[in-house]
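Example 3.
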Amino acid sequence: MVAKKCVAMLLAGGQGSRLGVLTKNTAKPAVPFGGKYRIIDFPLSNCTNSGIDTIGVLTQYKPLKLNSYIGIGQPWDLDRLNGGVTILPPYMKQTAGEWYSGTANAICQNIEFIEAYNPEYVLILSGDQIYKMDYSAMLAFHEEKEADVTIAVLEVPWEDASRFGIMNTDEDNKVYEFVEKPKNPISNKASMGIYIFKWKKLRQYLTQEPRSSGSNNDFGKDIIPRMLKDGEQMYAFPFKGYWRDVGTIQSLWEANMDLLEETPELDLYDPGWKIYSRNPVEPPHYIARGANVRSCIITEGGMIFGDVNHSVLFAGVTVGKGSRVHNSILMPNVKVGENTVIENAIIAENTVVGDNCYIGYSAGAEEKPSRKRKDITVIGENLTLPSGYKLDKGSMVDSENFLAYQAVI
Amino acid sequence: MRDTMGIIYTGDSNISLQELTLRRSIAALPFAGRYRVIDFMLSNMINSGVTNVGIITQNNYHSLMDHLDSGKQWDLDRKSGGLFILPPYVSHDNTGWYRGEVDAFHSNMSYIRRSPQNHVLICGSSMICSLTFHKAMEFHRENMADITVIYKEDKSATKEELSGHTLLRTDENNRVWDIEVRPSVPMSDKVSMEMYIIDKKLFEYLVEECAARGQYDFSKDILLRNLNKLRILGFEHEGYLAKIDSIHAYFKTNLEMLDQENFRDLFEQSGPVYTKVKDQVPARYGKNASAINSLVADGCIIDGVVENCVLFRGVKVGKNAYIRDSIIMQDTEIQERVILDNVILDKNVIVRKGKRLMGQKNYPVVIRKHAVL
């Protein structure tokens, strides 16, 4: 095998339970985002745009959709003779098998994969973030500082700092302290969960016996604090730009809505930094006479006969005559019947909404659209909602409970 | 259909398409928002299970080669068969300039001979339709045809439109008994779709025979001369058909895609239509945007008003611009307050603020690639 300077390991095994019904049958990185993407398109595209062509994707939870989406990596130019993308699920060993019990443990179980490329550096990425980042700049920073580990950090608003893992650094960006969710933060540099390690150093930490008080399972909880304690060279790489963790319904919805701004902070149009995805084979979308589309994103295969305002519509979405879609996200192949109202909703793949439905219904007079989780209505995939179905705002339904909901209203 | 190889001849004359084909063949002409004309024929073949496809090129084929690449978008990057691009070449018995389809087939006889399939499906490149060839093939076999010609009975076409086509006259058994090639007074409304199914051995023989006699026209020299000797049958295609052979036809056919019936026929009946992927961002509509009866591809940013339009990938429409009955190709930029009516803008055109362009329904204004107005 030709040696690689840097191998990326993408952690894509998490369940993402905070996304509720959206991750019932899908791993979080395969959740659709922004009209034609899935979350994993962002780290994969960043890798390919940064010149990193060897990526191990660690999967565990409900991997079918994710595996078939990644395939041989062709959409991201990762179908390579040397390197490319490799899916790394947990596996049986000679005596027993074990699941990935944490971020670092997943890497530890795949040391053989990394060793095969004999890299100098290993880049650790996670599969639930929306951002554009040049990892090669971070790698250059890491080399220049001769660091053992470099952690990408984002300066978050001070009032939010206590929700993150905060890096306290000196003026040279050298980390001297790491505090998880500090009550009184003295820095606003939040860890983005993106690490570059010297592979030899990381390997040493992954393979040595865990100390009595802890384990080797997690980067944030075990490996990073231990390296810091041992006085390893740890630097914070300051990242500037759009970055969102889309691990919750609220943040996923907000990040989608961010794309509808007049000039979105996340620039997807940069020809030098394209976000690649597996493209659906669909004709251009059609806007009928009598339809109305404003402040929205619509992609190929769409058929719009109704009124779509401030919404994100994925491939193959149909909106029937007289229907109104507002502040909503309709994932691939959602079909909306006629005279239906959909407000502040996320509707997952292949769900059919009948005629005269009201999704996101509130008993009171029409309120100003709010951005609170409790007001976002979420509908799971592959459902068929009958005509006349009403769904209260803020409810979350899937194949198991949607009939019960109908009975209540 | 695995026993059938496909050949697409893209050397059709393209003079009547003027500016649009200055730098590309008809096969590479952009169509319906994100396709090129050849995508339809190629997808028809793929959807029929034909996996060995040769594409014979003649005029200005760089744009076509760029589009087809390795054929992977059509699943034609195969070890066995796959896509073969066959450009013209010069040798002792070949000038590289084809005098007709038969000359082109003759020049590529080595590819045809070494293909293991027993049937050949020959297609031109200017027809837009969506079909699979299973039924035609079954018809060909059951009726012991030597050659099956696929045709479309076009009852609504005017005499003038028909006289631009090759027309078949068939008897009650579908036997072709006469062929009219661009007749001044058309006697039939059965338009040949320039798609033929032939047994490969017979095809090789006919091409050699024709070439030996200095005959190069498929319709006239292979079909017409052999009407009595060979069993030539017509097979009717009932779906949508358009032939891109003039600016008017190009304009009309694109706008016909706004009709739901035509659109469904082309994109939903016979399987997906594949094309080169551009990884564009989904289309964005601004606060004051409005779109009425239009097809819009990915990558467009629309802040103005579009009505009865086909917008290709990456078109920008500025604020207060108003575009009606127009075809706007890839990456063209229409700035604020521009008014367009019955216009075809080729790729990468820029129309500056406040400009107006008005064409007529039967005579659209055509602006060539990279023009700045």
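Chain A touches chain B through 34 residues (CB under 8 Å). The mean pLDDT of chain A is 90.
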